Amino acid sequence: MIDSPAQIVIVDDETNHLRAIVETFHKEGVSCLGLHYDPEVGLEATHLRGVRLLVLDLHLLPSGTLGSKQHFGHLAQLLEQCISYKGGPFALILWTEHEEEFVSLIKYLDSANGLSEHARPVAYGMLSKAHFLCPDEEVVEDHAGLIEEIENALQIAPQLKAIFAWERDVQSAIRSMLASMLELIPKEKRTSQLFPHEVETLLSRLAIKAVGEKNVCKDPRAALDASLVPILADKISNARVPEDLELWRSVIKESSVPSLPSIGYASLNRMLHVALPKSDTIRASDWGSVVEIPNNWNDEHTFETHFGLAQSECFNKHFKIPVAKHDQCRAMLVRIGAPCDYAQQKAGPITFLLALEVPDSIENCGTPPNAIWTSPLLSIEHCELFSLRVSVSFPLTVTLSQISAWSAVYRLRGPLLMELLHKYGTHSTRPGKISFE
């Protein structure tokens, strides 16, 4: 609760100015974080890890003989060092009276080679401190006016407003879910002494019902998620603000969607269906995790020991990959299993399916068997296009101790994994009959 990141951050090298601006936000009931800037010390990146609106002076360095490009370079360096790649989009308000410099800064940041994509503001605004700060007292007289001017100054396109509105609605849904959940605790037990125990009892009930009493201790957070995440999803889906309807209509238009190159669609598929270790914690044992087969399994004999078929023969005759292209494919394993078994962390062997990452440029040397499930086209970090081909005919069972040294490359998200599991289940139980024509 206390370590929640600030969404509005005010940075200023003038202590009196900083105090006056922060006070303005607070008096209008808006939470913000004020940071005094000292060029010798810099800023702590952790303070800006969740920023949505960053307000700072265009000239944070003492002017002296410094030119605009040096100020611009300093701001770019500050953004690069302090903006988290996990933080999401943010807008930048600059205190300046010089519109020409403001426009030049935008062009500079938009084209700066040393500035990562995540550190580039998605919207800008400029204001003059002189219009709001009394020169003698260094206070803001019109607090509401300053907040309004900041909102008006931000050149936020409707598309970006919609993104921020969606985030606001998600946060509202979380608050609503917590409130409705805690309403289950009787009024007479909502005291400082009794309330913590009642919350513990409620959370335990939800977790136990989701995975069973014997399995809660294996991953208590996952057990609770199994109960709460569906409720949260429902809250988010229904947390619509009527006033935003026209906003959404203005930014989502079927007729205005241009076609994409293949890598664009592959990147969208990746975002929707594949989680990466960079942003998610993924273990080899996690449901849907995809791991590369151990290096020592790649020789023909060891591969045949595990799968009953030499690797080259499996690639060629089963996956239908031309022999000359085998070295371009990567053998993988996909963790599967019944959802309830995974949720309850049942003891016993873990099942993986043999898979291949196949570059999009490779053509099959025949028709793959029905036992092969193929993912949509994927691209990880805009690299080579590939599809993941998973064979439901080659399951592999291992124990948890056997995979302790394995590392997950990525993880298939729920919808894609459920499609694969459906394929595995229907293929494994398909009926057969003897008939004469």
Q: If you had to describe this structure to a student in words, what would you say it looks like?
A:
The structure is a single chain. 23% of the residues are buried. This protein has three domains: 149 residues, Rossmann fold (3-Layer(aba) Sandwich); 95 residues, no CATH class; 167 residues, no CATH class. 38% of the residues lie in helices and 15% in strands. Strands 6-12-7-8-9-11-10 form a seven-stranded antiparallel sheet. The protein is globular.
Largest sheet: 7 strands, antiparallel
> How many structural domains does the protein architecture include?
3
Roughly what fraction of the amino acids lie in strands? 15-25%
What value does the Rg take, in angstroms? 28 Å
| Helix share bin | 25-40%
Give the helix tally: 13
Question: Characteristics of this structure?
Answer:
about 425 residues; alpha/beta; Rossmann fold; seven-stranded antiparallel beta sheet
Write the layout of secondary structure elements.
Layout: E1 8-12, H1 15-27, E2 33-36, E3 53-57, H2 68-82, E4 91-95, H3 99-111, E5 123-127, H4 143-153, H5 158-182, H6 195-211, H7 220-237, H8 245-251, H9 262-273, E6 274-275, E7 289-292, H10 300-307, H11 311-318, E8 330-335, H12 339-343, E9 350-359, E10 372-374, E11 386-398, E12 408-412, H13 414-428
Parallel strand pairs: 1-2, 1-3, 3-4, 4-5
Antiparallel strand pairs: 6-12, 7-8, 7-12, 8-9, 9-11, 10-11
Helix pairs in contact: 1-4, 2-3, 5-7, 5-8, 6-7
